[in-house]
Amino acid sequence: NAGVTQTPKFQVLKTGQSMTLQCAQDMNHNSMYWYRQDPGMGLRLIYYSASEGTTDKGEVPNGYNVSRLNKREFSLRLESAAPSQTSVYFCASSGLTGGGGYTFGSGTRLTVV
Amino acid sequence: GDSVTQMEGPVTLSEEAFLTINCTYTATGYPSLFWYVQYPGEGLQLLLKATKADDKGSNKGFEATYRKETTSFHLEKGSVQVSDSAVYFCALSGGSASKIIFGSGTRLSIRP
Predict the structure, then answer these.
(1) pLDDT of A3-57, one tens digit each?
(2) Which of these, A34, A70, A100, A113, is most buried using a 10 Å CB contact count?
(3) Measured between beta carbons, which residues in chain A are less than 8 angstroms from residue B31?
(4) What would the DSSP string read from start to end of B18-86?
(5) Distance (Å) of CA B63 to CA A26, B56, B78
(6) Taking CA atoms, what residue in B is nearest to A59?
(7) CA-to-CA distance for B107 and B50, rounded, in angstroms?
(8) What is the pLDDT of residues B32-70, one digit of tens each?
């Protein structure tokens, strides 16, 4: 079982460039989430999608946009990357809205120079 | 709002030592509680969970008991191994929020 698949695994961007992080799950989960993880900061929620067709802001949405393309896929876009967006990004999914726990992808390590 | 506070790390222990990582929470209602583990270079994995008061979650020798009276969910293991070296996150969901809220993580290092 693939679970949650994130691409790419590593990326280096120049300030001002744009990119999209891809996430797909094969567990028929309704809810999907994007987090960023920074040293000493734990996990911070960027955006989430409780169900197909809906998206909502999390704790740190500025500088990001998301698209819930279908039930399987949830992408995160950086329109104009900034060094402050250097981080490890994790996608997660859950069958219930958090009550059953999340399944995480392996992460995308993004460096903005 | 809902929140999770866990023991700051890093925690360094010798192999076969007893482990406790403290976790307390603040929530309205009756949240579900979780422990996640993150091995180097990987995503988070669900280690164990408890969904109601006095429940004990257990997995891979780790245990945690949902204590409503003390709003705690401490992680314990009787004899740690080098392979347990990882970052451990306490988390909750439910109560006033349906999303999972994570603590800041505790880095555990086990020396042979």
Answers:
(1) 999 999 999 999 999 999 999 999 999 889 999 999 877 899 999 998 898 999 9
(2) A34
(3) none
(4) -EEE-EEEE-SS--EEEEEEE-TTS-EEEEEEE-STT-EEEETTEEEE-BTTTTB--EEESS--GGG-E
(5) 30, 7, 9
(6) B101
(7) 22
(8) 999 999 998 888 999 999 999 999 999 999 999 999 999
Q: Does A98 touch chain B (CB under 8 A)?
A: yes
Look at residue A1 and tell me whether its pLDDT is greater than 80: no
Contact of A16 with chain B, judged by CB distance below 8 Å, is answered with no
Q: Does residue B26 sit at the A interface (CB-CB below 8 Å)?
A: no
Which chain B residues contact residue A101 at CB under 8 A?
32, 34, 46, 49, 93, 100
Q: Do the beta carbons of residue A48 and residue B99 sit within 8 Å?
A: yes
Question: Is B93 in contact with A58 (Cβ distance < 8 A)?
Answer: no
More confident residue, A72 or B99: A72
**CA distances to A39, A50, A57, B7, B41 from A47, in Å:** 20, 10, 5, 27, 23
Q: How many contacts (CB atoms, under 8 Å) link A and B? A: 54
At A78, which amino acid appears?
A: L
Confidence class of residue B97 from pLDDT cuts 50, 70 and 90? very low
| pLDDT of B85 above 60 | yes
